[in-house]
Amino acid sequence: MRAYRSSSSVVVAGKYIALGFYVAFALFPLYWLLKIAVTPDKLIFTDGTSLVPSGFTFENFSTVLVQTDFLAYFRNSLVVSLGTAAITTCIAAAAGYAFSRFDFRGKRLVIAVMLITQMFPLLMIIAPIYKIVAYVGLLNSLTSLIIVYTAFNIPFATFLMQSFFDGIPKDLEEAGMIDGCTRFTALRKIILPLTLPGLAATLGFIFTAAWSELLFALMLINSNDTMTFPVGLLTFVSKFSVDWGQMMAAGVLALVPSCLFFIFIQRYLVQGLTSGAVKG
Amino acid sequence: MTALADTAPGETRARPSFYFRYMVEPYLYLSPAIILIALVMMVPLVIGISYAFQSVNLLRPFQTGWVGFENFQSLWSDRKFWLALTNTFWWTLGSITLQFFLGLGLALLLNTQFHGKRLVQALVFLPWAVPTFLSALTWAWLFNPTIGPLPHWLAALGILSEPFNILGDPDLAMWGPITANVWFGIPFFAITLLAALQSIPGELYEAAEIDGATTWQCFTKITLPFLAPMIAITVMLRTIWIANFADLIFVMTGGGPANSTQILSTYIFTTAFRKLDFGYASAIAVALLGLLLLYAAVLLMLRRKMVKI
Q: Given an 8 Å threshold on Cβ–Cβ distance, is B133 in contact with A107?
């Protein structure tokens, strides 16, 4: 595309304007969230649509952190997301390695089943899962969420890991195996260190996915002690829908881990999303 | 992984047999994934389909049992179902069209050279990382006249007669979730299409330039044909994904006002979550699944025909 002919200054200006539009569209909602969060309560209504707050305060943040349960929700979400990310990545690394390195009977079937899990409406299984989780007595527990999220994310993570393994030459571990170590040792000593960036990217993707999940958490959790952040925030919103500053401060806090992970995995975005183009 | 260590393949034999390599070893690596997917997704899927033919309502625990096609009969005469079906169509069509064209535009822009490219790329992809529930809340707030600027701006532009909340207007409410969905979905299309654009060999453009092709000709004769397979697969998968996507609407409007934003997936969720009528919810879900399968089958058939020509 670089070969598109060198263009006139009008075209260049148009390009920068278009890019400016995209950046503004992407950032504006988040900016507004932040703006309301730092505006003192009594100024929210007089400020109206002005783009810059006329006052500045961290009070909303401190109120949210000290007086509400958001810190507990935050901790619950962190446990669920980290647990899901860690377990999923381990399981998916093994499965992705099998897809990448072996030709075996039933491979196409397993791949087909994994693709199907990405296509059917997940809400279809929300009722059976509720019943099963209730039956084994895991309602209102973070464990149930970790198990459910792990299963949901394994197919995507597996395809992602497979693409990372595909990028590592087979000769490496074959050389190791000729030198007498088993396949598993070769995998552990030679291949895994090379896929560390891939493992990290997968961790990031799964963490973000688990951090945002709302509907299953809403269904499986209704005690205040085990609410995840999305459920807590939504409950808070429906109960106190006038504390705008506090709600948005809580929103900004929910944004922090995702943004950190995003900056961290940004490099792998193109590779990741194209190899597993099934999921957003 | 530690669980695998005990049964590590080939630990005892230096040269694994053919049978071991092709039948057993791969499954040692795959088994945790297969077991979890089977237990948490496939088994509930089968149970879910069976629920569609049963009466399962947690609020009426004593009236359970097989009811044949009764759920589907009530579905057929349920006006809310048909409304939700129409809404699903408009929601999906509106979202995918805007996401695709804006995403393609962004991908084309990002595929050129300009100053600050890395920063711009990071910033425009950011919405993709924002948790869905938070995008939904943020956009709901932006549309709220007490706290958000959008109604006032729209009124100033003359699009709205006065700054009211379009999420409360049955005729306009669907535009709220669609806007949020477009915001959230542009990065996905931009990323996939950008990857496809970068795989087009540069020599083609050089050759076209030597032959005196215009920029527009380059776009329609080289870029589009190269992108076509990627576009087809992405749009198909994304359509299915968006049709199933309930979070945004559930948080922003809850399906209201007057069911004007109720799509099939939010209808499934509210039926299961609020009414606890699992049988009926599963019947809607089976209907949605059937429609999506039909859609995929039609697309695949079309594709086969196109390829023949």
A: no
